[in-house]
Structure formats: structure tokens, C-alpha cells
TrEMBL record:
SUPFAM superfamilies: Nucleotide-diphospho-sugar transferases (SSF53448)
Active site per UniProt: 236 (nucleophile)
Species this protein is from: Pisolithus tinctorius Marx 270
Recorded family membership: Belongs to the glycosyltransferase 15 family.
GO process terms (BP): cell wall mannoprotein biosynthetic process; protein N-linked glycosylation
Pfam family of the protein (one): Glyco_transf_15
The protein's name in its UniProt record: Glycosyltransferase family 15 protein
GO function terms (MF aspect): alpha-1,2-mannosyltransferase activity
InterPro entries the UniProt entry points to: Glyco_trans_15, Nucleotide-diphossugar_trans
Any one GO cellular component localisation term in the record: membrane
Keywords carried by this UniProt record: Signal, Transferase
Length: 335
């Protein structure tokens, strides 16, 4: 097929891309992007990098999710960035809206209190909806039922390096359930009673904990307190069957029943991280050291040979891994 030679550009100036030979094996996996229509330019920015650095060669599909219908323009412009299948889903209101049984007076008071204290997104209801949705509902969406592994992508992130292997197959072949690039501390003001709630749940369900979990990633004192370490969930490569499984499902339902997504501002990052650290074997949590990644204001920039091999373009000196606010050293100590 001929490219559209336009505006008098002679044919001999064109060099069409060679057709890409697809890998023989693939995982049952998809990209997932929860976005608003206004996130169009930002998500295209991220998706274009994903395509160029990885997916052009692997052709994994995309699932876009939104609490409102996507516009025709949104669908058209994101679809033209890839040759892989792209699907668009609407989140049902019961997976998104603040539940009826939440005491609205108490929730309003909490939001006003957090706004006074300048807690980031402290006054936002939609942000809370988003956090609750990502914590316990994204993997239940109809369009995601056919998939096991997912890669979460947010607007305006950066992928610094070539990814020449299939991270989904790595997850599958090595029996991993959760992959991350950046870890850090959560704001105390957003989760005042989260750990207390987690401890209550664990007291009632001790059999759900495997012996070899990553408990010391989340607590420095044998469980007395939460050290607030979490994996930064704007990047995730994970196994949805882990979230769909008994332990995490019970865990999420318990947390949800306490109302902390609305009476406080529990984030999906600490909730996923606590779930992974408690209910998975520590060997099932993977640090994607070779994936150079930035979401403002932090980045993981691979070092040394990994930087070279990946043709990364981040400054190796600008790397969050062992900054004082990073939790990566606690992850290292697990092994
Ligand atoms: P931050 O990374 O914590 O600052 O939060 P973001 O604003 O990046 O939101 C996290 C993710 O949820 C992004 O992919 C957003 O596009 C998405 N998101 C946030 N709020 C909404 C919302 O109200 N509706 C939809 N559809 N997506 C949202
Ligand atoms: Mn973001």
C-alpha cells in the first residue's frame, strides 16, 4: 500500500517503516488508561511514547475507561496512534459515585478540614471517586474481564528507555503479581486511620497472609505502625487475578465498608501497595529497574549499562531511587 504522497513530495523521498515481526508468544494483557476527555493531549503524549519505545513491536491492546462517554474526537485521535486494538468503556455509576451509605455530613467536614490544611486533592470528591475506583473496581470492568495482566498508563508521563522485552511475559513466567518503578511515602493526613483498619482486618483474617510476604516494606516495627511506604500506582504492571482473588477482594471490601475513601482520602497507591505487600509472596513484587519512567515530580532513571542498553535519555544523576523520600531501599532489604 502506498502512503499518501501529498503536497508534491516525490515518492523517492519516502522510506516506509518495515513491517514489524510480532513475537511468537504473548501474554493475556492490555494497557489500561482511566482518563477524562480533557486528558486527550496528555494521554496521547504518554501513549505515543509507549508505542515508540515498546508497543510498536508487541501490539498489546488498549482499554480506555472514563466515568463519562468519550467524545468522537477523543476516540479518533487516540486510536490513530496505534495499530493495536483500542476499546473504550464507561465506568458504571455504582463503581464510581460516592455510595449512598456514606454520611455526607461527615464526608463534607473531612473535605473542608483537609482543604483548610492544604492537603493535596483534599477537597475533591472526583479524586476520591478515582482512588476508590482504581483501588477496587477497575479490574471488574467488563472490557477487562478477558485480560489477566494490565499496564496502567496516565497522562503526561515519560518513558525514557527502549523496552525490548515483554514485561507481561516476565510477570507471567516468573509468577509476579505486581510491578513498580517508583516507591515513596504517603501523606499522613490522607490516611489517619488506614493502618488501624488494616490491623483490624488482619486480626480477623490471619490466614490470608503468606509467610513470605513483604511485611517489612510497610512496617518498621513489626506491625505497630505503617511506615507509609507505597508503590507509586500511576505506573503499574500487575496481575488482575491477584486483585480479583479472595484475599484482596475481602481486604478491599473491608476497607471500603469503613468509608475511608471519603471520610479521609485513602489513595489507590497505599491500598494496592498494602494489598500486594500483605497478600503476595515478596518474590512476586517486581522492581522494573530497566523501565525509565517519570510522573511529575519524580523519576526512575536506570543507571550504568541498563541506561546504555535501553538508549535512555534521562539524566542518570536525576534519579529518585535512593533519595530520602524514596522507599526503594526497604524493598531491596526484603531480599
Ligand atoms: P495524580 O497523579 O494523583 O496527580 O492524579 P491525576 O489527576 O493524574 O489522576 C489519576 C488518574 O485518574 C489519571 O489517569 C487521570 O486521568 C484519572 N482521573 C482523575 N480524575 C478523574 C475523573 O474525574 N474522571 C476520569 N475519567 N478520570 C480521572
Ligand atoms: Mn497523575
Amino acid at each position: 500500500p502506498q502512503p499518501p504522497y501529498k503536497d508534491g513530495v516525490p515518492e523517492q523521498y519516502y522510506k516506509p517503516s518495515d513491517p514489524v515481526a510480532l513475537p511468537e508468544r504473548k501474554a493475556n494483557a492490555t494497557f489500561v488508561m482511566l482518563v477524562r476527555n480533557t486528558d486527550g493531549p496528555g494521554i496521547m503524549n504518554s501513549m505515543k511514547q509507549i508505542e515508540d519505545r515498546f508497543n510498536r513491536k508487541f501490539q498489546y491492546p488498549y482499554v480506555f475507561l472514563n466515568d463519562k462517554p468519550f467524545t468522537e474526537n477523543f476516540k479518533k485521535y487516540v486510536s490513530q496512534l496505534t495499530d493495536a486494538p483500542v476499546e473504550f468503556g464507561i465506568v458504571p455509576p455504582e463503581h464510581w459515585k460516592q455510595p449512598e451509605w456514606i454520611d455526607e455530613q461527615k464526608a463534607t467536614a473531612a473535605r473542608e478540614d483537609m482543604m483548610r490544611n492544604n492537603v493535596i486533592y483534599g477537597g475533591s470528591i472526583t479524586y476520591r471517586n478515582m482512588c476508590r475506583f482504581n483501588s477496587g473496581f477497575f479490574y471488574r470492568q467488563e472490557l477487562l474481564q478477558k485480560y489477566r495482566y494490565y499496564w496502567r498508563v496516565e497522562p503526561d508521563v515519560k518513558y525514557f528507555c527502549d523496552i525490548d522485552y515483554d514485561p507481561f511475559l516476565l510477570m507471567q513466567d516468573q509468577n509476579k503479581v505486581y510491578g513498580f518503578t517508583v516507591s515513596l511515602y504517603e501523606y499522613e493526613a490522607t490516611i489517619p486511620t488506614l493502618w488501624q483498619t488494616v490491623k483490624e482486618f488482619l486480626d480477623e483474617n490471619p490466614e490470608l497472609l503468606p509467610a513470605d510476604n513483604a511485611f517489612s516494606f510497610i512496617s518498621d516495627d513489626g506491625g505497630l505502625t505503617y511506615n507509609r511506604c507505597h508503590f507509586w500506582s500511576n505506573f503499574e504492571i500487575g496481575d488482575m487475578d491477584f486483585w480479583r482473588g479472595e484475599a484482596y477482594s475481602k481486604f478491599f471490601d473491608y476497607l471500603d465498608s469503613k468509608g475511608g475513601f471519603y471520610y479521609e482520602r485513602w489513595g489507590d497507591a497505599p491500598v494496592h501497595s498494602l494489598g500486594a505487600a500483605l497478600f503476595a509472596n515478596k518474590s512476586q513484587i517486581h522492581f522494573f529497574n530497566d523501565i525509565g519512567y517519570r510522573h511529575e515530580p519524580f523519576q526512575h532513571c536506570p543507571q550504568g549499562d541498563i541506561h546504555t542498553n535501553g538508549k535512555c535519555w534521562c539524566d542518570p544523576g536525576a534519579n529518585f531511587d535512593y533519595e530520602w523520600y524514596s522507599c526503594l531501599s526497604r524493598y531491596d532489604k526484603l531480599f
